[in-house]
Every structure is written in C-alpha cells, then in structure tokens.
Amino acid sequence: MSVPKKKYITTPIYYVNAKPHLGHTYTTMLCDTLAKYYRFAGSDVFFLTGTDEHGDKIVKAASKEGKTPQEYTDFISSLFRTTWDTLHIEYDDFIRTTEDRHKKVVRQVLQIIYEKGDIYLADYEGLYCTGCERYLTEKELNEKGECPDHLTKPELIQEKNYFFKLQKYLPKVKKHIEENPDFISPDRYRNEALGAIEELIKQGEDLSISRPKARLTWGIELPFDSSFVTYVWFDALLNYISALGYPDNELYTRFWPAHHFIAKDILKPHAIFWPAMLMAAEIPLYEKLSVHGYWLGWGDIKMSKSLGNAADPLELTNKLGEDALRYFLAREMRFGSDAKFSEEIVITRLNTELSNEIGNLFQRTLSMILKYANHLPKPQSHDIEQKLNAILQEVQTEYHKTMQKERTDLAIEQVLKVTGFLNKAIEEYKPWEMAKTNDENLLPLLTTIFRGTLVCFAYLRPFLPNTWEKLTNLISFVQKEVFPKELSAIEWDTQNMEKPKPFFPRFTNENH
Ligand SMILES: [Zn+2]
Prior knowledge:
Blueprint lengths: L5 E10 L6 H20 L2 E9 L3 H9 L4 H18 L6 E4 L3 H16 L3 E11 L4 E3 L18 E10 L1 H14 L4 E2 L1 H17 L3 E2 L1 E3 L8 E2 L2 E6 L2 H4 L2 H4 L7 H6 L3 E5 L3 H14 L7 E5 L2 E2 L16 H8 L1 H11 L6 E2 L2 H30 L11 H20 L4 H22 L1 H6 L5 H19 L4 H10 L1 E2 L14 E2 L19
Helix pairs in contact: 2-3, 5-6, 5-10, 6-10, 11-12, 12-13, 13-15, 13-17, 14-15, 14-17, 15-17
This protein binds zinc ion.
The site of zinc ion (ZN) has 6 residues, from loops.
C-alpha cells in the first residue's frame, strides 16, 4: 500500500467561547494519530490546529468575565495550546485568527474577490436580540421563537452589509462534489452536502460576510470599506491557507491542498462555503473533507473515582493514561458515526483489548525473551512462522487501507488479529514447559513470536506513542523510523533489555 508523498492535515480552528472538551480532544487526537501514521509511513506531513477568535459571542463572553476580548482570547487560546501540549499533540503550527499573518491573508483574499465583482453591498435582514447584541439564527431560538438567554422575541431589523455571490458558485461546487466521490467522506455527509446545496439554491440567498462597526468592532476590517468588519466564516476558513503563508510562502507551495477533519456540525461551511470561496479567489480546492460524528453521553457522565471529572480531557488523561485515552477514542468510534461514551464502555474496551490482549502479549513475550533467550542469535524459523506470515500479509494491506480511510477502529481490529494469533500460540506451545526439557524448538518459537509482537507494536505506534517510546528504551531497533515492510525486515538488539513492567495494568472501576 502506497502513501501520499505529502499530507497536509488540519483540525478546525476551535472557537474560544469555551474551554477544550472531549469533542475537540477527539478531533485533535485523531488528526495527530493520522499525522503520526503518515509520518511513519514516509509522507511529508504538515499538521495544523489553532483557535478562531473573532465575533460577537467572544465580545460577550469576555465582558462576562470582566476582560477585554484580547485578554479573553489570549487566555482561552492558551488553554487549548496547553491542553494539546500536555497530551503531546505534535502539531506543526498553531494559528490564531487574531494574528497579523492571518488578518493580512483575509484582507488579501477579500480584495481579490471584491475586485472580481463577487462581493457587493446590499440590505441585510435578520433577527436581532438587543440583549445579546447580535443576530440570532432561527435554530438558536426556543419553541416560542424567543432568545433562549433573554426570553424575549428578537427584532427583525435591516441594515447594509456586504454579500458574497454564493449563488454564482453553488452549481460549480455541486458539480465538483458529484464528480469527485472522495471529496467529502463518509458518503452520508457527501449526500448531506449535496442536499444542503439544493436547499441553498432554492432559497436563492447569497452569503452575508460583514457586520457594521457600529455593531461589532472585534473583527478584521474589510479592505475596501473601513466601516465594516469581516463576519465569521470568511475570516475563520481562511486560516487553512493563512497558516501556510498564502500566496507565495514555501510551505504553501509545498503543502496546499489540505485534508480537513471536522465534526458534523460544521459540515455546511466546509463543504459548501469554503470551496465556493476558493473558486472565487481562484485557489485550488482542498483535497478532502473527512467528517466525524458526536460522542454521546459525554459531559453528562457522572463523577466517579476511576474517571474523575470526565468532562475535562486532562482529568481523564490523568486517570486513564494518555495512550489508553488515545487508543479508546480511535478504537471506539466508527469514523462518521456517533459513538457512546460511558465509564463502563471505556473500562470494558480497555480491559478486554489493551490489558488482556495487547499489554499481556507485550509483557509476556518480552519477559520470555529475557528469561530464555536474551541474546538472540540470527533469526530462526519455527513452523508457526508460515502461518504468521500469511496473517501478516493480509493484515498489512488492510491496516494501511483502513488507516487511509480514517477507519482507525478497523485498523486496530487488524492488529488484534495478530495479537490473538500470537497469544494463542503461546498457550498452545507453552514455552515455559519447553524450557524445562531444553526443547530445541524453543528459541525459534520465541524468535517468531517476538517478531510478530514487534510488528504489532509498530502498527500500534500511532495509537500508543508513549508505549512505543518505552519499548524503544528497552530494545534497540535497527530501523526505528519505518513500518515493517515484512516480518523478516525487523532487526533488534535486546542486549540492554531490563525486565519490562506491565504495559497496561487492568483498568478498574472503583465504584463497583
Ligand atoms: Zn438574547
């Protein structure tokens, strides 16, 4: 299975009106896991994350805390950054929309589209809540049509605003999605995007991209009219190119177009507005949009001794361990669908697979190698080697295929096939009994099992990066940086190996 020469992976930039939660953590950890995978597999990778910091909701949230918008966004943005740093997320850049390098690109692109005639001034009509000091969408209102915070009916008001000619580009975006089946995945979101385009064409409206400064000053000033600031998506989406230094920076030339990862709630702007903006600015479209579902039950999970306050990703990491959390998130969610989160689901998944299958295999294989065969000679073969090779052949293909389709759950399932086979072989041949009778097959058997275990380790490396570090401290590999192409390609040196501690002791639910 081949990997792309280069890969530009992005998370959405997170809106700083709240602290990081599990939803953000999942997207970011998944992107980091895939970035690691592509790096190990030999791609040139750039991984971007960051924060979205303009708009009236930020002004509101800041004043609630008695802070200026700048102080407030500095604070929340640093919380995101610290969280990712604590979780060892290896991003290549962290972009903030309040940075000059971003503002510059937003103005540049707005100017290009304006000069082309695709931005115009017109009347804007919307539902305005004076308490919130902003327009509300129909979706935000309660059943009585009131602002849910102020319980008052918003006023229908009119003002001048700038509009982007979205209608002009909708048929072109639709055509691109139809002609490129992999542009948006999984399929259900591709269909949802096509449906939403139909809906927008029927409504016939263009996209409002400004707010008068009289109402909002916390934004990027329009380059062609200083009495307005840029509104929401036209500012935020451009982060994906501003971070690379569009239009002439080396990074931009090297990495654009991007592979974007988002949660399903921001499908419309990414699947429709963003390609339309790129078309208008005559920038090549992004490579792919991958859309994931929600974690159900997250947030209302009860406080408990074993998981602590699970609503906080750092707290959860403290309780479970970083690798275990990463493994759980990648394994439990079928990319694109919603997944359930509860203490029981977490504990069961981790015990069944990470402790009993994977941790157990790592631990006993390394212990046996140390006990019975510390200085392994040249690789020797045992009858199970052929069977192992056959399984690995199949697993290798499937592993790469599923990883490149973001189906991390299935990629791990492939590895579990190998750990299952090896654990069964240990039970069947009982190396400890063979040692008692000085069986000459012991060393070849252990060598084969050890090789298989190392292959599993290598495949699990993107999911268990800290465990991999631990292992490489125990064993020196000859080829540390690449995936094993085949079983016989792995070479190692166990000379300095010490008795390994259990990798994943059982996870307990202390409340039961
Ligand atoms: Zn309100």
